[in-house]
Amino acid sequence: MPEGVIGGMLGDEDERPELEEALSEANAEGFTAAIVHQASQEDPDVAHEAAAFLRVQTEHLHEEHPLRLAHLKNQLREQHLRRFGMRLRVGFQLIVVLLSFGVFIGAVLLVRDAVSSHAVVIDPFDTPPSLAQNGVNGKTAAAGLLDVLTKIQNATHGDAERRSLSNAWTNEISIEVPETGVSIAQIEHALQTRFGHDQHINGDLVQTANGGLTLTVRGNGIQPKSFSGANTELDKLLTQAGEYVYSQSQPGLWSAYLADHGRPDEAIQFARGVYNTAPASERPYILNSWANALVAKGGTDAMREALPLYRKTVQLKPDYWPGYNNVMFALASLGDEEGVVHVGEQMIQVAGGRKGRLAEGYLANYDQIVWNIPDERAESIADMESHGGLGSSTAISGSENLNIAQFEAQMHDPDAAEMRVKTTPIDPKSLPDFSLASFDRALIAEERGDMKTAAAEWDKLMVAYKDPVVSAANPQTVCYAAVSYQKTGQSAKADAALLPPGSLTFVDCYRFHGDVLDLRGNWPEAQLWYAKAIQLGPSIPSGYYSWGMALMRHGDLSGAAIQFQVANQKGSHWADPLKAWGDLLMKQGKPKEALSKYNQALKYAPNWKELKEAIKTGTTH
Does 270 map to a domain? Predict the structure, then answer.
């Protein structure tokens, strides 16, 4: 620290001579008194004179003592004042330094925010005075446009980066910067204008000669466009202008909005027209929405047309997880379930593992194939909550809440699944909603052993399945009906659910074909279909599980154990192979080992009543 600061804290340099002088005088007097005392012991005269001298000195000291005390008190008071002043100066200097540092940090933050700003800013519109009497001016017109843009953005479930929306007079702060007369808001606005990347939108609203209205919008990067209508149609004009502005400023999100809101033809047309001129950063999102619109529109080749677009999104953006998820969705729908596993593993590797940069929701299609049902359920709930309670797949696969009901039924929790179906608003005009609700109800009925009700629900699904919108998105669901039909004596319907053989290359279709043949007593042919299921999807656990169950029914416990073990390796979070393995061990008289499998299964199906009963039985042995 500087000497002046130390001096202010420990004492002033000017005080030292006075203190040293006082100390010198005191020492001199003491030294003189000592000499006089020594001399008085050797000569009585000297002692007499010394005594007189000392009396005089004592009287003199008594007289000077108050003066000396007052002088010393004044010196101490001056010292304290000087020290206080120095400390005050140091404190003030520290406050100035801190304030200066705060101003510096504030300036840095303002510049940083300005450089990183990519907002869409609506500036006040130009309006004629004649409209003011109706409450319409530049600010109200701009605010109306902002409301439209905000409503569209809030209703968009796309994955493109969302740009903030604001109007030009938002965040006006009345605090003034000292000695400049310029507001903080003006400084911020100037910095954003100079260094930012905001997209400013403005326009004008005029009254035409016939009394109508014409609204024109323009902005940097947005070509001017006019919208005309009657003088009572301002809201309509603002909606049209808002959609135009949104499509031009955020093409990725606008294409997603169209695809998600029942406007697939518009989405496809818009994506085709804007793709080549759109910024490179927007193109993966445009392609993804384009493909989603193709699938939502339906058609026998819709998924085949969509798959190359989905693949291209990943090429353009290697960390575009929705692209990977949709590639898997398309592959699964086209019957290449083994390809789904490979793409999922590739995505996990690129992301640095499941817990790396990858959001769990994008593993839904992968988890569905490997029967990781608990994680798939959790992923769907998280996705639904992050998209306004709807989920991101509603336009293609039906309400995501109905998908969650399916997972709960497959986790052997029919009560939870039934409650979810009952509390889900189902759009009767939405075939994906209708078919998925029927699928859920059929699974719930099967879980409760009510095959008659299950078959009736499968009948509803079979009707909806005739529409390409349903069959293109979830083609394998029809195969689930075959076993219920066979158990209720409806062999022709069972065959219809599986015919033509081999046209649906899904592991579920192949293994259920084996189940139907086994129910009919054709065990040799059934085993061929189980083998085909495993050959079709060697990385998928369900084929091994179904064959294991069939082998156990036929008394081949060692063969069944092998299939259950492989099924557990391929689908480690699937409760069914573990429970079946435990049942097999109980048959072999190994209750302790069986109980271990049951407890593992309980982690992935905590509300499975039959499993809990098996655990209770295993515990009593």
Answer: no
